Amino acid sequence: MTTRRTPEYSARPGRPVGRTALAGLALALAVVAGLAWVGGMIYTIAGWTG
Q1: Cα–chain-centroid distance for residue 17?
Q2: How far is CA 37 from the centre of its chain?
Q3: What is the pLDDT of residues 1-50, one digit of tens each?
């Protein structure tokens, strides 16, 4: 016999969805870290040549 229940949502109404927001922040942090790393490599190589 099956029971009929309303679905339980993980996020409360009125709050942003936590996993999506966290994924967006992690992606933004990864992009900034990647750009900083590339900039550091360019700066280092430019220092070696000059």
Answers
A1: 13
A2: 17
A3: 567 777 776 656 666 678 889 999 999 999 999 999 999 999 999 999 97
Distance between first and last Cα of the chain: 79
Q: What pLDDT score does 7 carry?
A: 72
CA-CA distance, 10 to 28, in Å (whole number)? 24
Q: For the whole model, what pTM was predicted?
A: 0.61
Collapse the DSSP code of 37 into the 3-class scheme (helix H, G, I; strand E, B; otherwise coil) and give the result: helix
What is the C-alpha separation between 33 and 38, in angstroms, rounded? 9
CA distances from 40 to 26, 31, 33, 47 (A): 21, 14, 10, 10
